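Lab notebook, bench 4. We co-purified these components, and the gel suggests they stay together. Before we commit to crystallization screens, I want a quick structural picture of the whole thing.
Request: model the full complex, all chains together.
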Amino acid sequence: QVTLRESGPALVKPTQTLTLTCSFSGFSLNINGVALSWVRQPPGKALEWLGLIDSDGDKYYNTSLKTRLTIAKDASKNQVVLKMTNLDPVDTATYFCARIYPYSGSGEVYDYWGQGTAVIVSS
Amino acid sequence: SSELTQDPAVSVALGQTVRITCQGDTLRSYYASWYQQKPGQAPLLLIYGNNNRPSGIPDRFSGSNSATTASLTIAGAQAEDEADYYCICRDISGIHFWLFGGGTKLTVL
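Here is the predicted assembly.
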């Protein structure tokens, strides 16, 4: 059974760094083609892709945010960490992690999602 | 252009059929997947590839693809289908890597 769960602070002050952890089970991030992605959703707004880390350890980031984002994995703990620097109130959102899995003939799919963790950026 | 475009809002009468579309050049090269999101919940995978449904997704949900348009059809919409629907696809341009549609709010009347 695949599960993902995000954890981290609910409240962060402007200019601070946000650190979120995605703890997952039921699959290995070492399987070729599997990746773990971070997605966020400001209140009342659409989903926004932040970035991902794949089975090779390669990382890809949203071009608009890449200078502020770092994604890293701890395979031994089945965890992936997202760091976002220099937080601003516009970064207030629910942050999700999701598994990307390669389905034969269908491409890569965001098939499992965590429940999300809400982060408020405010002084 | 590197984006996926969805109509912001669509409505359907209870029991009728509705189609939600997603447009983008990248759809010529990659399949979109479709997600349902209800308030306070994570997105739920509905359709992926060429009209594949994960286990547990009702067969009233179906997908189709044509050139630069991917479509999600709900045949016989139910009250519980009222939700936001998103398409997601790889970015053929390589600029953004992954593209997310802006979402369609479905209202069941």
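Residues 28 and 66 of chain B are 8 Å apart (CA to CA). Worth comparing against the SEC data before the next meeting. Chain B touches chain A at residues 30-31, 33, 35, 37, 41-45, 48-50, 52, 54, 86, 88, 90, 95-103 (CB under 8 Å).
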